[in-house]
Design a protein that fits this description.
42% of the residues lie in helices and 16% in strands. The protein is built from 14 helices and twelve strands. Among the domains are: 1-44, 434 Repressor (Amino-terminal Domain) (Orthogonal Bundle); 160-288 and 320-340, Response regulator (Rossmann fold, 3-Layer(aba) Sandwich). It is elongated, with a radius of gyration of 24 Å. The strands form two sheets. It has a six-stranded parallel beta sheet, covered by helices on one side. The protein has a six-stranded mixed beta sheet with strand order 7-6-8-9-10-12, sandwiched between helices. By secondary structure, it is α/β, with parallel strands linked by helices.
Length: 341
């Protein structure tokens, strides 16, 4: 492993300068400090330095995800993570992250600079700078719903294949055969997996797979207005949504178009946010135990810090049936179904 002297020799500076850069001393320029940190990372000194500090200090970097109130997706995940961290006397810092921060400072340099032993990344997409850097990181890192092939990086989430299958099977049991999927935003592993899960489940239950009944939106209610009318034109009698917020927008758009839920169109969400119980009608959804996700993320991070390489940890989802799903309208059912009934 490289030493402080090795870093000093490579940079052509005094050992004391490197020491100041690594320890956050005030009598060194910011440019020199950053150069020392970046060089330390390049030479493989970062992991050794963080381990030597021995501080029970980790961070949650969060982007493109709301988390400040209980109705928001990230809130309970962070609560779960912090609960587990508190039991282990570990300090947790939640840091909102944006493209500007990612472009200013490399991930490993940021972690080394602040003395974080590991990180939990929430809301990042596959094209974010920090995600692209994780294939070579030496810093223990846990991702939500994303996977990077690196023994120091783990993936925690909910089994999306099982979750989508629960939704499709529920609708198939209600005689729906033209089911639409309003998925999340592109450039996300979880979005790609749910798309694949949907097509597999539709085939599994001998249901029509129609490209006109599949679309990508965003995790906001407003995206529904761009797709619901198209789904209806293509004969959809049920819509599976990638989140409860999307589902709330779908229900509102169906109402605007004069359609009743579930008499005309059934709607299924994903997440089981508190809002699901307060929608009219109440929302059938796939429940993710977000507190458990947070606890699992901390447990995985602690193992990674301890040198145990864990690749994936997936929690089982649960189908929660409420009032937004019902039988397919008789006039929309296949003739064979009606003959059997």
């Amino acid at each position: 492993m490289p030493t402080i002297r090795d870093i000093a020799n490579k940079l052509g500076v005094a050992v004391s300068t490197v020491s100041k850069g690594l320890n956050g001393a005030s009598d060194i320029s910011e440019d020199m400090r950053q150069l020392v940190l970046d060089t330390a990372v390049e030479m493989g000194y970062a992991a050794k330095r963080i381990q030597k500090l021995g501080k029970r200090k980790v961070c949650i970097l969060i982007e493109n995800m709301e988390y400040e109130s209980i109705d928001q997706f990230g809130y309970e995940i962070i609560v779960g993570f912090k609960l587990s961290a508190a039991r282990r006397h570990c300090e947790v810092k939640v840091i909102p992250c944006n493209l500007n921060l990612q472009s200013q400072e490399r991930f490993d340099s940021f972690m080394l600079k602040h003395g974080y032993s590991g990180a939990f990344l929430l809301g990042f997409t596959l094209h974010d700078d920090y995600i692209s850097q994780l294939s070579k990181t030496t810093v223990p890192t846990v991702l939500l719903d994303n996977y990077i092939p690196n023994r120091r990086v783990g993936y925690v989430g909910t089994d999306g294949f099982t979750g989508i299958d629960l939704a499709v099977r529920h609708l198939a049991d209600l005689s729906h055969h033209k089911i639409a999927l309003l998925n999340g935003s592109k450039n996300s592993l979880v979005t790609e997996e749910r798309q694949l899960a949907f097509t597999q489940s539709m085939g599994k239950y001998s249901l029509e797979i129609n490209p006109g009944l599949m679309a990508n939106g965003y995790y906001v209610p407003e995206c529904a207005k761009d797709h619901v009318s198209v789904f209806l034109q293509n004969g959809a009698t049920a819509i599976v949504c990638a989140s409860d917020l999307i589902a709330s927008g779908v229900i509102a758009e169906l109402r605007r178009l004069g359609k009743r839920v579930p008499e005309d169109v059934s709607v299924v969400g994903f997440d089981d946010l508190p809002v699901a119980q307060h929608l009219i009608p109440t929302l059938t959804t796939i429940r993710q135990d977000r507190v458990a996700i947070g606890k699992s993320a901390f447990a995985m991070l602690e193992e990674l810090i301890g040198g145990v390489n864990i690749s994936k940890l997936l929690l089982m989802p649960e189908l929660v049936v409420r009032d937004s799903t019902g039988p397919c309208p008789p006039e929309k059912q296949p003739l064979a179904n009606l003959e059997r009934s």
